[in-house]
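Cross-posted from the bioinformatics board.
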Amino acid sequence: MTGPTARDSGLQGERTALSWSRTCLALAVNGLVVFRAGWESGVGVLTMVGALLVASAVALTIFGNARGRALSGHGRHHDRIPSAAPAVPLVLLTAAALVACGAGIACTLVER
Amino acid sequence: MREPKWREEGEDPDYRFSLANERTFLAWIRTALAILAGGVLLEQFSSRIGPHVIIVVLAIVLGALSAVLAVVSYVRWRANEIAMRHGHRLPLTVALPLLAAVVLAVATTIAVLIAVYEG
């Protein structure tokens, strides 16, 4: 029997890390779409926002990988019971998604 | 940035439930991003259907839905964490009927546009 806070030898951490990668991939795709629209229309701000979104997708992917390692017990604190996600990266991801929404709407409004 | 204050209330839930909650948040964000990409790409690659104004309106509706879902996903993650810390029931969400209704409306409009302006 494992207690409610005992380390789970299952694949919880792996699923969570994969979930982060998939989400960052979706963010990167949106960043590329915005980048392309900015490039084609010559609107420099959109191009920069697109690049920024791709960069934040890369940064959050790195966070997701580090989190996956920590959860699977291969991180630095491998003896510690994994804890819930810190709120900061979730807030950052939500903010990035909102920026992507603004940029996406702007993309549909610029003249091509 | 410090951890939010609600993290100190109640008891830490089983971390597996927290991870499931985190994955649910990520799944909602992905849904929002997929809807956003759908809207933007619809506008950029729809040269053959409908009056362009309607397409732009659809794209903006999808972008706005995406923004609402992104905010709701974080608010809901937070509310779920707090409910689990206090042993309460998980809160209901308006995101599901909202998502279904808007996607139905947009899909129906696109179908009509394709039927009317086909080719």
